[in-house]
Structures
1.
Amino acid sequence: MAMMDKSSLINIQLAVERLQNADILSPQPDITTILSHSFHIPRHRAITGDFVLSEEEWARFHETIGERATHAPLQYILGKCDFWKYEFNVTPDVLIPRPETEHLVETALNLLPSRGKKLIIDCCTGSGCVAISIALERPENRVIGCDISTSALNIAKINKNRLSADNCSFLATDMLTSFAPSSVDLITANPPYVAEEEAPALQPELGFEPRKALFSGNDGLTHIRSLLKQAPVLLKKKGYLAFEFGYNQGEAIRELVEPEISGKIHRFEIIRDLANHERIGVIQYA
Ligand SMILES: C[S@@+](CC[C@H](N)C(=O)[O-])C[C@H]1O[C@@H](n2cnc3c(N)ncnc32)[C@H](O)[C@@H]1O
């Protein structure tokens, strides 16, 4: 039977109390993740307390717990985040990739044949998680991730090099303004889509993420309106735009897209996430 180390259980209990007092919603899983990522303790041992740390290591552990108690997201504290099949570096210069955005990658891959040379633009690329995941799954395609933030693009380039996504490159640009007309097969985008007026009600963790990664005007739709205007110019005939939007924006997206359907739009579909929220718009232009 595993031997419990008393000091492990005492230190874990102290950390749980500190995080609970700071209104952190998931103290135990956060502690397990910190122990396994930063101190290489297997998760099952981190849970049972069956491990030993030195005094210096416990001091570092409590320092990390102190950071988490300020509501700094765990991914920024650890400097990494799992997304799709890969681990991405993240810093406060980039949005933390969200699980629902993995549906955007899945959607893009369903639209791309497994062979053939296609050009894909990932607009609002941030850490490059979408662009790099698609590039690694479709090595014959060329993927360009673009973002207005050069500091975000520096992190995207680190991720591209670490994951050897040689068919992926990055470009600093305002939305889709730097691309030639009728040249692109697929545009993906997870743009900012939070309404400014929602800011006061958001979880404190979001305050650590870049403002320009989150907010998009008074109704949260400014960037999506730009995408819907710019994408058809850039796309080849029968090209696709696949974009993420907020869990409560499905109706607003329909109102923006449906008036165009009989003219320049060939097909329009909305895909739901695992929580059954409408999440991804897919438009095939005529
Ligand atoms: C919601 S984050 C998405 C990041 C990444 N694609 C992801 O899914 O994790 C939106 C990104 O859009 C970028 N952005 C904001 N305004 C932009 C603009 N006008 N043109 C291009 N990128 C912009 C932000 O810098 C941020 O990296």
2.
Amino acid sequence: MSGELTVTFYGVRGSTPCDGDYLARYGGNTSCVSMERPGQDPIVFDLGTGLRNFGASVMDSSPTAPFRGSMLLSHLHWDHVQGLPFFVPLHEPGARVDVYGPRQTEGSLDEVFTGLMRPPYFPIRPDQLEGAVSFQDAGDDDFAIGEAKVRSRWIRHVGPTLGYRVEWQGVAVAYLSDHGQGYGMGLPDDHVPDEVLELCDGVDLLIHDAQHTPEEFAQKRHWGHCTVDYAVHVAREAGSKTLAMFHHDPSHGDAEVDAMLRDARDASARVNGAEVVAAAEGMVVRLPDHRPSHLRSLQ
Ligand SMILES: [Zn+2]
Ligand SMILES: [Zn+2]
């Protein structure tokens, strides 16, 4: 079996899906990242509009086998949920998706999600799909999905929001798509909460909010996002190996994201920090298993 984890970015945009020549290279679909290992069910971060293209990829690669997989939902803002109704594999009998997401005060995650996927907003409810979708409430939790160890922790954003860490056969990935620095707690803007360090500690790949320039952050700190500099700082403090700038602002064209990436690489090099990439739609990151070969052969 391959000792490699394949991470594919299907949606990297924050706030709203968008289109146009100015952002064609990084893409306009909203948050969705898949993790796949041969012979195992995939694990997907977030159900933004990028999920539709993940579904198309699934149908291309295994058109007859019912889909089985798990999805880790960060929070219920539109840019993280709109893809589920358009995930075609769930329209097939026998398919099954387990969605883990932030516990809500208004009711179970199942009830609250069904409140946004039902008439008149959408023709059917989740329980009327041909395939089965289940919702699991999560908070500060540690749980297993198949052979993967998953850690969820509350992180700072607008409304209940989870960050995730997934350790899967010797590779660790953290996902903090929407993360507001200094937001709502009266702490310094560069403070990194213990929960965030716990998620990001030594990971091979950190997928982190990088929505704002410093000038934008000064105007929009109440949006619950952060600067690229803060993402670099989190990666440095946690010892993350690679940082993928994520949740690009819809107003940022390719040239602007390129410029933010150059600044981030300079800032990270100055502190001997992580390698930095800017997530782009269609980008694939392959992470090899670090374990000694005698341990790999046990699984
Ligand atoms: Zn978002
Ligand atoms: Zn959000």
